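hey m, so remember when u said the tokens were messed up on ur end? i reran from scratch. heres the input so u can diff it against urs
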Amino acid sequence: MKIPGFLKDGGTIGFVAPSFGCNIEPYKSGFISAQNKFKEMGYKLEIGSNCYEGCGIGISNTPEKCGEELNCFMTTKKADVVISCGGGELMCEVLDYVNFNSISRAEPVWYMGFSDNTNMTFLLPTICDTAAIYAPCAPAFGMRTWHKSIQDAFDIITGRISEVHGYDMWEKESLKTEENPLEPYNITERKNLVYYNGNNSNGADISGRLIGGCLDCLGTLVGTKYDKVAEFNEKYKEDGIIWFLEACDLNVMGIRRTLWQLAHAGWFEYVKGFLIGRPFCFGEEFLGLDQYRAVTGILGDYNVPVIMDMDIGHLPPMMPLITGVNVHVTARGNEVYVKYN
């Protein structure tokens, strides 16, 4: 697995928009504020041509232009780290215009983003054998006061930390609006980790290679020419695989269907454990199915630790996760640590 070089003092941060751009509020102001913060810290910036675009369908621009921007930033060393402007809906359509062969041959560059950016943070390690970072997108760095999770994401790309720790509280209702675009996270809910099939009912210790992302995107990739999971699993079977998964638009039935799909595609071979983020449909039931049985009804068959309601994904804060690398996960009660080896 290729590990990109970390962002050094005075280095260059690049911004791209292969999914939504920052053309509307509150994202535009958040993005501008993030740029100002990074410049004040002494970093140089490279702004991709699509970052303020909104003419695309479910993405910032046409798939061709989004792919062109990605190829440029990921193969020419324009920046030391590349941060996506946002998630969106149809980044999968960009993939036909991404030159993964050229990216594989180029000097590796960190790519950071989440949600729809699973289309890069998942495919970089599984196709290009290059690590990436599943973490907040660019506008989050513009919030008035950085939450610890934002600092952690920055410390990951600068190489200052090699371990992340879960957070005590999370946001159920955001206060960010068009009129107040720089509001910090509205942390009101106490975290309560839920365990299933662990070494005990209140903890787990898992070592393996970390991979995963947003289920909404992963289900779309199954069986396509971009599905190289079998090869990835075989290459790293001695390490074993730890999957991290979270959901955005999927309700509990959609979560269960998608997990069934991944399981029947053989994606979970050599699995050592599952880290499950809080779904956007947190607390909702449908036809007697809740968010926990949506997961355990499928993943329980693997008889490995499953840790649910972790700080991963669309209900912030989120732990920055490096995809493709070996990690050791230690969890006890509501405390969880992810250490990168």
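this time it looks ok to me. Residues 27-40 form the longest helix (14 residues). if urs says something different then somethings off w ur setup not the seq
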